[in-house]
Amino acid sequence: MSFDTDENGYNDSNRAFLQAFLARGSMTFAEARPVLAAIFSVQEGQPTQAEDVTEDDLASYIAAANTAISPFDLEIRSTLRQTTSTRPNGDDGNGTQEIRAAERVYALVNTTSDALTQLASIYSADEIAFVKRVLDAMFDTHNTRRSEAMVVTGIQAMQLAKAASGSQGVGGAAQSLPMSQAESVMKQLVDEGWFEKSRKGFYSLSPRALLELRGWLVATYNDDEDEEAPQKIKFCAACRDIITVGQRCGNRDCSGRLHDMCVRNFFRAQKAEQCPACKAPWPGDKFVGERAITTSEQYQQGKRRSTNTQQQGNREERPTAAASTPDQDDAEE
Ligand SMILES: [Zn+2]
Ligand SMILES: [Zn+2]
């Protein structure tokens, strides 16, 4: 097979990579390796192993792809996955979730419109209004001073299928969705890589969605009038990226937040385990994200009760009623 190269050095191997990328919407280095190995094998006429593909190879293909797609207001951007705990098969089976080296996720981002606008081509206005209610639940209702969970359970999502009376959708009053339709929208959003569902049954925004929605989330949920006001959308003090899973300062009114994977290097550099914002000792066991719920006394009690009453059969973990209540550490305040 010959590879026609244009004046910019862009050839069929670049086109093949871009096609594979567009088909997926997002990719990690591990996922890109076999794709590039297959392309190199054809290009060089001899087999290339996935292990032989380097990060530099990927970087050069991403750069070429970005040049090709920029006229269409598209760009491949990358972010580090905040944690490995929500990764499919990321659990070691012992119930412990080791924090491994963070994985970089590359995703196709539309540079001129936000993800909600793009969803309009796939979903109906009422479905998008439902997605907006789910996002409001994640980033407003379940993201408070008392509990920065930024997740919803499947049951909570189903409760959002019903539109509040008088609520506005795109171009008119939003209609409620039948439960089955809401369920299929949630499933589709997971399949398309916008939402992730954790082992414990919580839905959160995927790295890809966070890349796309960062600006929209800040504009929608943060108060830019009053800079002193506590902000709903917060950023890691170490890497400056958005934080929806990680650790928080022991003082609920402090804005100090760090990703789990950023903590170690940050404190090593600082030579003290202090909050980056207020300098108080860093607790290390105060969380944002799903663990704001799962480490709470109420959630643990709910689990104990449900394991006792639930004999056998349904082995899927279900978040209990306690899922929507904040963690219990009033004592610290
Ligand atoms: Zn960070
Ligand atoms: Zn602090």
UniProtKB/TrEMBL annotation:
Keywords: DNA damage, DNA recombination, DNA repair, Metal-binding, Nucleus, Transferase, Ubl conjugation pathway, Zinc, Zinc-finger. It catalyses: S-ubiquitinyl-[E2 ubiquitin-conjugating enzyme]-L-cysteine + [acceptor protein]-L-lysine = [E2 ubiquitin-conjugating enzyme]-L-cysteine + N(6)-ubiquitinyl-[acceptor protein]-L-lysine. GO terms for cellular component: nucleus; Smc5-Smc6 complex. InterPro entries: Nse1, Nse1_RING_C4HC3-type, WH-like_DNA-bd_sf, Znf_RING, Znf_RING/FYVE/PHD. Residues 236-279 form the RING-type domain. Residues 293-313 have a biased composition (Polar residues). GO terms for biological process: double-strand break repair via homologous recombination. Residues 289-333 are annotated as: Disordered. Pfam families: SMC_Nse1, zf-RING-like. It is found in: Nucleus. The keyword Zinc applies. GO terms for molecular function: ubiquitin protein ligase activity; zinc ion binding. It is an enzyme of class 2 (transferase). Its main location: nucleus. Its EC number is 2.3.2.27. It comes from the Eukaryota. Component of the Smc5-Smc6 complex. Belongs to the NSE1 family. PANTHER family: NON-SMC ELEMENT 1-RELATED, NON-STRUCTURAL MAINTENANCE OF CHROMOSOMES ELEMENT 1 HOMOLOG. Acts in a DNA repair pathway for removal of UV-induced DNA damage that is distinct from classical nucleotide excision repair and in repair of ionizing radiation damage. Functions in homologous recombination repair of DNA double strand breaks and in recovery of stalled replication forks. This is Non-structural maintenance of chromosomes element 1 homolog. It comes from Penicilliopsis zonata CBS 506.65.
